[in-house]
């Protein structure tokens, strides 16, 4: 998590959001779902996820709140206000493996195939505080830059910052990941 401030200072970087994942399933293992636990900047870095300023505020004020993709909502019949139990191998600090997530909004993020989005955005702070392992860690930094022509240089500078750290970075385009 401490890397965020250093990445923000790299010339050409305009915005840095963080993400941690929560993988699990609904009711039975074949019903897999992945939650992107983002911070307050995450939705700015992912403009395809349409969320009003009020909805964003609600997401970060509701610890277990989630913006649920239309595909999952249709498949399971979920609606705004539902609390869904997600069983995950990621254990909570209280020993439980069930994460109860409250649907705050149903969102569509797939413009090529509307109504099929299986994207789910959760509150990073909640996931980080409630998980029993890896607190304060981030799986992915999402970065916006001022000039796309500077992407290779910026990526190399970011990776150079952490090359000799216990957890080096590996910068790539989202398309390449």
How would you portray this structure in words?
With 177 residues, the protein is of the alpha+beta class. The chain contains six helices and seven strands. It has helices at 3-8, 42-45, 53-61, 70-76, 124-130, 151-161; strands at residues 13-26, 32-38, 65-69, 83-87, 98-107, 120-123, 140-145. A six-stranded mixed beta barrel has the order 1-2-6-3-5-4. A hairpin with a 5-residue loop joins β1 (13-26) and β2 (32-38).
Across the major sheet, the strand order is 1-2-6-3-5-4
How much beta, percentage-wise? 25-35%
Shape: globular
Q: Supply the number of helical segments.
A: 6
Major sheet description: 6 strands, mixed, barrel
Q: Secondary-structure element sequence?
A: HEEHHEHEEEHEH
Computed over alpha carbons, the radius of gyration is 17 Å
Helix content: 10-25%
What is the end-to-end distance?
20 Å
Briefly characterize the structure.
The protein is an alpha+beta fold and 177 residues long.
Write the layout of secondary structure elements.
Layout: H1 3-8, E1 13-26, E2 32-38, H2 42-45, H3 53-61, E3 65-69, H4 70-76, E4 83-87, E5 98-107, E6 120-123, H5 124-130, E7 140-145, H6 151-161
Parallel strand pairs: 2-6, 3-5
Antiparallel strand pairs: 1-2, 1-4, 1-7, 3-6, 4-5
Key traits:
single chain, 177 residues, alpha+beta, six-stranded mixed β-barrel, 6 helices, 7 strands, globular
């Amino acid at each position: 998590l401490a890397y965020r401030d250093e990445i923000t200072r790299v010339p050409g970087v305009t915005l840095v959001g963080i993400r941690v994942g929560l993988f699990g399933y609904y009711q039975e293992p074949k019903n897999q779902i992945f939650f992107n636990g983002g911070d307050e900047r995450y939705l700015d870095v992912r403009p395809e996820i349409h969320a009003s300023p009020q909805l964003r505020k609600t997401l970060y004020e509701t610890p277990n709140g989630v913006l649920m993709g239309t595909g999952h909502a249709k498949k399971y019949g979920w609606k705004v206000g539902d609390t869904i139990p997600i069983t995950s191998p990621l254990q909570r600090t209280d020993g439980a493996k069930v994460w109860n997530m409250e649907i705050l909004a149903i969102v569509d993020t797939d413009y090529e195939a509307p109504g099929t989005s299986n994207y789910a955005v959760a509150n990073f702070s909640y996931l980080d505080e409630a998980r029993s392992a890896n607190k304060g860690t981030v799986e992915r930094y999402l970065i916006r830059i001022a000039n796309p022509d500077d992407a290779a240089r910026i990526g190399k500078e970011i990776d150079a910052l952490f090359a000799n750290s216990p957890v080096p970075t590996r910068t790539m385009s989202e398309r390449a990941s």
